[in-house]
Specification:
By secondary structure, the protein is mainly β. The protein has 2 helices and 16 strands.
Protein backbone atom coordinates (compact mmCIF):
# COMPACT_ATOMS: atom_id res chain seq x y z
CA UNK A 1 0.00 0.00 0.00
CA UNK A 2 1.26 3.45 -0.92
CA UNK A 3 0.35 5.50 2.14
CA UNK A 4 1.60 8.91 0.99
CA UNK A 5 2.56 10.25 -2.42
CA UNK A 6 3.31 13.74 -3.71
CA UNK A 7 4.97 14.73 -6.98
CA UNK A 8 5.32 17.65 -9.37
CA UNK A 9 6.06 17.46 -13.09
CA UNK A 10 8.42 16.62 -14.73
CA UNK A 11 8.43 13.75 -12.19
CA UNK A 12 5.46 11.43 -11.74
CA UNK A 13 4.71 8.33 -9.64
CA UNK A 14 2.00 5.99 -10.92
CA UNK A 15 -0.42 4.05 -8.72
CA UNK A 16 1.18 0.83 -7.44
CA UNK A 17 0.07 -2.67 -8.39
CA UNK A 18 0.62 -5.94 -6.55
CA UNK A 19 2.90 -8.62 -7.99
CA UNK A 20 2.15 -12.31 -7.57
CA UNK A 21 4.41 -12.62 -4.51
CA UNK A 22 2.85 -9.63 -2.73
CA UNK A 23 5.50 -7.08 -3.78
CA UNK A 24 4.25 -3.54 -4.40
CA UNK A 25 5.23 -2.60 -7.99
CA UNK A 26 5.65 1.15 -8.52
CA UNK A 27 6.67 2.94 -11.70
CA UNK A 28 8.45 6.31 -11.69
CA UNK A 29 8.46 8.30 -14.89
CA UNK A 30 9.19 11.58 -16.60
CA UNK A 31 6.23 12.19 -18.97
CA UNK A 32 8.09 15.01 -20.79
CA UNK A 33 10.25 12.47 -22.67
CA UNK A 34 13.64 13.21 -21.15
CA UNK A 35 15.90 15.50 -19.16
CA UNK A 36 17.18 18.88 -20.35
CA UNK A 37 19.84 21.12 -18.90
CA UNK A 38 18.63 22.84 -15.76
CA UNK A 39 16.11 20.14 -14.82
CA UNK A 40 16.35 19.07 -11.18
CA UNK A 41 14.49 15.90 -10.23
CA UNK A 42 14.51 14.95 -6.53
CA UNK A 43 12.97 11.65 -5.44
CA UNK A 44 12.54 10.69 -1.78
CA UNK A 45 11.18 7.23 -0.89
CA UNK A 46 10.53 5.75 2.54
CA UNK A 47 9.90 2.02 2.70
CA UNK A 48 8.41 0.81 5.98
CA UNK A 49 9.42 -2.29 7.98
CA UNK A 50 8.49 -5.75 6.64
CA UNK A 51 7.48 -4.49 3.20
CA UNK A 52 8.40 -5.55 -0.34
CA UNK A 53 8.85 -2.94 -3.04
CA UNK A 54 9.89 -3.02 -6.70
CA UNK A 55 10.68 0.33 -8.34
CA UNK A 56 11.28 0.78 -12.06
CA UNK A 57 10.83 3.18 -14.98
CA UNK A 58 8.77 2.69 -18.17
CA UNK A 59 11.70 3.18 -20.54
CA UNK A 60 15.25 4.46 -20.85
CA UNK A 61 16.01 7.98 -19.57
CA UNK A 62 17.06 10.32 -22.38
CA UNK A 63 19.30 13.28 -21.59
CA UNK A 64 19.20 16.06 -24.19
CA UNK A 65 21.95 18.43 -25.27
CA UNK A 66 22.54 21.61 -23.33
CA UNK A 67 24.75 24.68 -23.55
CA UNK A 68 24.17 25.55 -19.90
CA UNK A 69 23.97 23.68 -16.60
CA UNK A 70 23.58 19.89 -16.42
CA UNK A 71 20.37 17.98 -15.82
CA UNK A 72 20.25 16.70 -12.24
CA UNK A 73 18.42 13.73 -10.77
CA UNK A 74 18.88 12.68 -7.16
CA UNK A 75 17.18 9.69 -5.53
CA UNK A 76 17.17 8.86 -1.83
CA UNK A 77 15.61 5.65 -0.46
CA UNK A 78 15.19 4.63 3.19
CA UNK A 79 14.56 0.90 3.56
CA UNK A 80 12.95 -0.28 6.80
CA UNK A 81 13.93 -3.29 8.88
CA UNK A 82 13.38 -6.69 7.23
CA UNK A 83 12.14 -4.95 4.09
CA UNK A 84 12.97 -6.08 0.53
CA UNK A 85 13.83 -3.53 -2.17
CA UNK A 86 14.21 -4.02 -5.92
CA UNK A 87 15.35 -0.86 -7.72
CA UNK A 88 15.48 -1.48 -11.48
CA UNK A 89 15.45 1.73 -13.54
CA UNK A 90 16.09 1.45 -17.27
CA UNK A 91 19.41 2.69 -18.59
CA UNK A 92 20.40 6.29 -19.31
CA UNK A 93 20.88 7.42 -22.94
CA UNK A 94 22.92 10.65 -23.17
CA UNK A 95 22.48 12.62 -26.40
CA UNK A 96 25.25 14.60 -28.09
CA UNK A 97 26.55 17.50 -25.91
CA UNK A 98 24.36 16.49 -22.95
CA UNK A 99 25.34 16.84 -19.29
CA UNK A 100 23.99 14.78 -16.40
CA UNK A 101 24.66 14.71 -12.68
CA UNK A 102 22.88 11.93 -10.82
CA UNK A 103 23.04 10.27 -7.43
CA UNK A 104 21.42 7.35 -5.64
CA UNK A 105 21.57 7.03 -1.86
CA UNK A 106 20.07 3.97 -0.15
CA UNK A 107 19.95 3.62 3.65
CA UNK A 108 18.98 0.08 4.71
CA UNK A 109 17.68 -1.08 8.08
CA UNK A 110 18.51 -4.25 9.98
CA UNK A 111 17.55 -7.46 8.21
CA UNK A 112 16.67 -5.71 4.94
CA UNK A 113 17.75 -6.90 1.48
CA UNK A 114 18.11 -5.11 -1.85
CA UNK A 115 18.72 -5.68 -5.56
CA UNK A 116 19.85 -2.48 -7.30
CA UNK A 117 20.55 -1.91 -11.01
CA UNK A 118 22.42 1.01 -12.60
CA UNK A 119 23.16 1.22 -16.35
CA UNK A 120 23.98 3.66 -19.14
CA UNK A 121 24.52 3.73 -22.90
CA UNK A 122 27.45 5.26 -24.76
CA UNK A 123 24.91 7.52 -26.42
CA UNK A 124 22.52 7.22 -29.35
CA UNK A 125 24.71 4.63 -31.00
CA UNK A 126 22.40 4.09 -33.99
CA UNK A 127 22.64 7.83 -34.75
CA UNK A 128 26.43 7.81 -34.67
CA UNK A 129 26.56 9.57 -31.29
CA UNK A 130 28.90 7.15 -29.52
CA UNK A 131 30.61 8.88 -26.55
CA UNK A 132 29.57 12.29 -27.90
CA UNK A 133 27.99 13.58 -24.69
CA UNK A 134 29.70 16.31 -22.64
CA UNK A 135 29.75 14.71 -19.17
CA UNK A 136 28.09 12.18 -16.88
CA UNK A 137 28.76 12.43 -13.16
CA UNK A 138 27.17 9.56 -11.24
CA UNK A 139 27.33 8.50 -7.59
CA UNK A 140 25.82 5.44 -5.87
CA UNK A 141 26.03 5.14 -2.08
CA UNK A 142 24.51 2.30 -0.04
CA UNK A 143 24.63 1.82 3.73
CA UNK A 144 23.39 -1.02 5.95
CA UNK A 145 22.70 -0.57 9.69
CA UNK A 146 24.40 2.81 9.53
CA UNK A 147 27.64 1.48 8.02
CA UNK A 148 28.83 1.89 4.42
CA UNK A 149 28.46 -1.11 2.13
CA UNK A 150 28.95 0.23 -1.41
CA UNK A 151 30.23 3.52 -2.83
CA UNK A 152 30.77 4.06 -6.53
CA UNK A 153 31.68 7.36 -8.20
CA UNK A 154 31.83 7.62 -11.99
CA UNK A 155 32.82 10.70 -13.97
CA UNK A 156 32.95 10.32 -17.76
CA UNK A 157 34.09 13.23 -19.93
CA UNK A 158 34.71 11.74 -23.40
CA UNK A 159 36.39 14.88 -24.76
CA UNK A 160 39.24 14.57 -22.25
CA UNK A 161 39.46 10.77 -21.97
CA UNK A 162 38.01 8.56 -24.70
CA UNK A 163 36.08 5.64 -23.11
CA UNK A 164 36.39 3.61 -26.31
CA UNK A 165 40.12 3.18 -25.93
CA UNK A 166 41.83 -0.13 -25.18
CA UNK A 167 41.28 -1.39 -21.65
CA UNK A 168 38.16 0.69 -20.92
CA UNK A 169 34.89 0.21 -22.88
CA UNK A 170 36.55 -0.63 -26.22
CA UNK A 171 33.76 -1.72 -28.64
CA UNK A 172 31.10 -2.15 -25.95
CA UNK A 173 28.21 0.36 -25.95
CA UNK A 174 26.54 -0.28 -22.57
CA UNK A 175 27.84 -0.28 -18.99
CA UNK A 176 25.90 -1.70 -16.04
CA UNK A 177 26.23 -2.54 -12.35
CA UNK A 178 24.09 -4.88 -10.27
CA UNK A 179 24.42 -4.54 -6.49
CA UNK A 180 23.12 -7.11 -4.01
CA UNK A 181 22.91 -6.15 -0.31
CA UNK A 182 22.03 -8.50 2.56
CA UNK A 183 23.30 -9.24 6.07
CA UNK A 184 23.00 -13.01 5.61
CA UNK A 185 26.47 -14.19 4.55
CA UNK A 186 25.19 -17.57 3.34
CA UNK A 187 22.57 -15.89 1.13
CA UNK A 188 25.15 -13.52 -0.37
CA UNK A 189 27.61 -16.36 -1.03
CA UNK A 190 24.90 -18.40 -2.75
CA UNK A 191 23.92 -15.37 -4.82
CA UNK A 192 27.51 -14.82 -5.98
CA UNK A 193 27.74 -18.41 -7.17
CA UNK A 194 24.44 -18.23 -9.03
CA UNK A 195 25.26 -14.88 -10.65
CA UNK A 196 28.68 -16.10 -11.77
CA UNK A 197 27.10 -19.18 -13.37
CA UNK A 198 24.55 -16.96 -15.11
CA UNK A 199 27.28 -14.69 -16.50
CA UNK A 200 29.18 -17.71 -17.82
CA UNK A 201 26.03 -18.73 -19.69
CA UNK A 202 25.95 -15.38 -21.55
CA UNK A 203 29.03 -15.24 -23.84
CA UNK A 204 27.79 -11.97 -25.38
CA UNK A 205 28.28 -10.23 -22.01
CA UNK A 206 31.67 -9.27 -20.57
CA UNK A 207 31.51 -9.07 -16.80
CA UNK A 208 32.40 -10.41 -13.40
CA UNK A 209 31.06 -10.86 -9.87
CA UNK A 210 32.78 -10.16 -6.56
CA UNK A 211 31.94 -10.01 -2.86
CA UNK A 212 31.78 -6.66 -1.13
CA UNK A 213 33.82 -6.15 2.05
CA UNK A 214 30.61 -6.57 4.02
CA UNK A 215 26.96 -7.24 3.38
CA UNK A 216 26.74 -7.99 -0.31
CA UNK A 217 28.19 -8.52 -3.76
CA UNK A 218 28.44 -6.61 -7.03
CA UNK A 219 28.32 -7.46 -10.74
CA UNK A 220 29.99 -5.20 -13.31
CA UNK A 221 29.27 -5.86 -16.97
CA UNK A 222 29.61 -4.53 -20.51
CA UNK A 223 27.27 -5.18 -23.46
CA UNK A 224 27.39 -4.31 -27.14
CA UNK A 225 23.65 -3.92 -27.77
CA UNK A 226 20.56 -2.80 -25.86
CA UNK A 227 18.97 -6.21 -26.37
CA UNK A 228 22.02 -7.91 -24.83
CA UNK A 229 21.86 -5.50 -21.90
CA UNK A 230 18.16 -6.14 -21.26
CA UNK A 231 18.63 -9.91 -21.52
CA UNK A 232 21.47 -9.72 -19.00
CA UNK A 233 19.42 -7.54 -16.66
CA UNK A 234 16.48 -9.96 -16.76
CA UNK A 235 18.61 -13.06 -16.26
CA UNK A 236 20.73 -11.66 -13.44
CA UNK A 237 17.77 -10.05 -11.66
CA UNK A 238 15.74 -13.26 -11.86
CA UNK A 239 18.68 -15.24 -10.51
CA UNK A 240 19.26 -12.84 -7.61
CA UNK A 241 15.53 -12.62 -6.86
CA UNK A 242 15.20 -16.39 -6.60
CA UNK A 243 18.21 -16.83 -4.29
CA UNK A 244 17.86 -13.69 -2.17
CA UNK A 245 14.07 -13.33 -1.89
CA UNK A 246 12.95 -16.89 -2.56
CA UNK A 247 10.63 -15.59 -5.29
CA UNK A 248 10.41 -16.64 -8.95
CA UNK A 249 11.19 -14.41 -11.90
CA UNK A 250 8.54 -11.85 -12.87
CA UNK A 251 7.93 -10.25 -16.25
CA UNK A 252 7.54 -6.53 -15.51
CA UNK A 253 4.95 -5.24 -17.95
CA UNK A 254 5.64 -1.62 -18.85
CA UNK A 255 2.74 -0.85 -21.14
Amino acid sequence: MLSQCRFRLPLQALAPTELADGTAYLMLLNPTGGLVGGDILLTRITQENDTRLCLTTPSATRVYRTLGPPAVQETSIRVGERAFLEYLPDHVIPHRDSKLRQSLQVEMGRGSRAIIWDAMAAGRVACGERWDFAAIDSRVEISLNGGPVFLNRMLICPASQNPARLGIAEDFNYLATLIIVAEDVAAVTATVGSLSAQLNAMPQIYGGTSLLARGGCVVKLLARSASDLLCAQGALWSCARNVLFGSPAIDLRKY
